[in-house]
Structures are given as C-alpha cells and as structure tokens.
Amino acid sequence: MLDKNGIAKRIAKEVQDGMYVNLGIGIPTLVANYIPDGISVVLQSENGLLGMGPFPIDGQEDADLINAGKQTITTLPGSSTFDSALSFGMIRAGKVDLTILGAMEVSENGDIANWKIPGKMVKGMGGAMDLVASAQNIIVAMQQVNKHGESKLLKACSLPLTGVNCVKKIVTELGVYEVKDGAFHLLERAPGVSVEEIKKATLGKLVIAGDISEMIL
Amino acid sequence: MNKVIKNAEEAVRDIEDGMTLMLGGFGLCGIPENCITALVKKGTKNLTCISNNAGVDDFGIGLMLQGKQVKKMISSYVGENAEFERQLLSGELEVELIPQGTLATRCMAAGYGMPAIFTPAGVGTEVAEGKEVRNFNGKDYLMEMAFEADFAIVKAWKGDTMGNLIYKSTARNFNPVMAMGGKITIAEVEELVPAGELDPDQIHTPGIYVHRIFQGSNYEKRIEQRTVTPKS
Known about the structure:
The structure holds 2 protein chains of 2 kinds.
Chain A: H1 4-12, E1 20-23, H2 27-31, E2 42-45, E3 49-53, E4 74-81, H3 84-92, E5 98-102, E6 105-107, E7 112-113, H4 128-134, E8 138-141, E9 153-154, E10 169-171, E11 175-180, E12 183-189, H5 195-200, E13 206-207
Parallel strand pairs in A: 1-2, 1-5, 5-8, 6-9, 8-10, 12-13
Antiparallel strand pairs in A: 2-3, 3-4, 6-7, 10-11, 11-12
Chain B: H1 8-11, E1 20-23, H2 33-42, E2 47-50, H3 61-66, E3 70-75, H4 82-89, E4 94-97, H5 100-112, E5 116-119, E6 133-136, E7 139-145, E8 149-160, E9 165-166, H6 175-181, E10 182-193, E11 212-215
Parallel strand pairs in B: 1-2, 1-8, 2-3, 3-4, 8-10, 10-11
Antiparallel strand pairs in B: 5-7, 6-7, 8-9
C-alpha cells in the first residue's frame, strides 16, 4: 500500500520532459519532489506564474510571490508572470499538458467531485472546475478508501460534481487505473496489494485484463 | 487631465451603500490595503464585493466583514476566515461561488466590451444551473455574463500620473482585469512617478482604464502561508 509520498512518487513517473504541468494542493504538490533528474518541466501556478521554483531560503520570502496555495515560493530562470485571466486562458486553450489534482470521489465515467460536501462549510472550487473542464490530461491523486472503509471509486459520484467525464488516470494507495469506456481499468497494483483487495475497494465497474503487475517505484 | 488624488479617503469618497465593487488580489497578495482601510473607516454598508477571496479575519476584506459592510461576496474560494463562516451560516452574508477562471474572464469581458463569454468550466455541475449552454465543435460551454461594477479598486507596484500601471510578480493576479472592468477604477500604487518615467512597452494596464490614482502608504503585505527552506 502506498502512503501520500508513494502516490506522488508514482505520479511523477507520468511526467514527461517538456511538459507544462499544473499541480493541485495536497498530494499533487508533493509530485514536484519526485520528478526524475533529466526531465525538465514547467510548473504552472494558476494565480499567474509559469516556472514555479522551490520555497525561498528563510529570510528571502517575498509577499508578492506566492503560489495558488498562497505559499511563498520562488521563480526560476525562464519564469514568467501574468494576470489571472491569461492564466486560465492558457488552461482553457489546452496549453497546459498535464493537470494533477486531488479528489474525494471519481466515477467510472471520469466524473470528479472534489469541492463540496453538503452540510459542511463550503470554501469554494477555486480553479478546479476550470482545470478539469479544459486540461488535456488529468491524473487524480486520491485515497481509494476513506476512513470508514468505503470506496471512493464509484458508479456515480454522490457529492456535487467538479467536472464530468474528464479524469483519465487515477493513482491511489492501492493501484493505478485508467478511466475509459465507462470503467476503471486496473493497470498496476501498489506494493503488497492483491487484486482481491482492489476489487473490494472499488464500487464502480472494474476491468482487470490478464495479470496485473506490481508497480515499480 | 488630472487623475492623481491625495489618498485613499479621497479615492473612496463617493462609494455609496449598496454599490458593487471589484477588489483586486489573490489571498492577501496584491490587495488594495489602503482603500480597504479607508472603506472600513468610511463604514459604507451593503456592498457587493467581487474578489477572488475574502481575506482573513483581521486583514483584507476580513476587516470589512468585521464591520458588517458586505452584503454579498462573489468569489472562487473563501476558506480562510472564521467571521466569514459565521456570517454565512447565520444568513447575514450572501455568497456566490464561481470558478476562478470564470471570475477572471467575466472581469476581463467587461474591460473588453464583451457582454458575455463561453467557458467549459462548470458544465454538468451545479454552477451550470439556470445558465445557457451552447455546443461549439462538439463540446458544451456555459454562457457567463460580463460583470458590472460601480468601482474597481486595484493595487499596482508602480503607476504614473496618466494612470498607467505596472504590477509586480504574482501580485498582478486579478488586478489588471479588474482595473479594466470597473465603471470607475481606483488604483493605489507603491510608487507614483511623473508621466514619462515608465517605459510604454512595460505598461500592464494602460491609463485609459484608470480614473483615480494615488501613492499608498504603510503597506503591510502580510504573508498568508510563509513557507521557506531552512538556511543550510
């Protein structure tokens, strides 16, 4: 079974040289720590930055330079800054190659819910609805089973939707799935996780074709 | 032509109860600190505020919420504010949550003279309820209307006496699109210089969009999430 860092490490293997990538808050942010040497990517922060660098050295933080999580960050050689409309313009126009974000639920047809729980204080969708509606490729990082043991890979989402028919790939603590043709297609198992465990943890339609190998991290 | 005014009090003098304002900034980054302070002092009520976020309890728009000056917030994310939550749950405050790109682009549309935009954000979700859906090239889009705001209040790094503005780093965020979108636009800047001192090729907001400009003072520039790498 993977922990948060393991999920991030596995997703980092999906990142290819030359990509422009938007990382959501939470596990997706950790992906930046595992991008292999020799792979050059540009991270987009939707508040208006391409070329997001690491956190600043203590004492060098700049209140005018933050990421979409409102954390102080740095620029890199070749970075650019721009306004919010342009930022979502490049997202909408499909210029951002890969979006990695978290989810509370995903359905077998690729619907995603990650912004609102009825009865709880709603904070807002931020840029998530824009990202999922427009990204060329969306990978979701999530816990497949919640703390009550319930599956979050469903036939249909029970929570209010963020976007429809948009998730392409999911990496969870249990495995890697491709979402297509109305089903979760199991691609890899997490270390030490059996196909039986995965079946039990998936409520939506699950396709298992042949022997599923354990992932190599 | 005289756009230069003395201070924030003069800038907000004719903002009246019940008006709609655009307020620049992302989180606490690039917010018009001086004008918010002046609005709090003035005590204007029943405001509708279009702003990506709602500040924190004791800074930014949070200060206006403390004074119960806001009737409605139009935002994409409002998570960092306990007083906001209290007023929302008690029904004192109305909130319209909209996708961040939609928010920015509805401001932009106002400044571009376009009545509406089409965006895929929110298709198939509760954001789409009651909105016209149009299909272009096999994909559905929502029609979203340009905002109408009585005043836009923005913060820039540098400005000149003609109202031309330059922003710094990610403090740019919503400021340029809101500057374009207000019926009357107020710009507060860290440094106000005479016309001719800014390079025309480096201007982000042309002065035609800016009606009032002043050099602000005592910028706190509070950091919401200070994240650093330890000195090695």
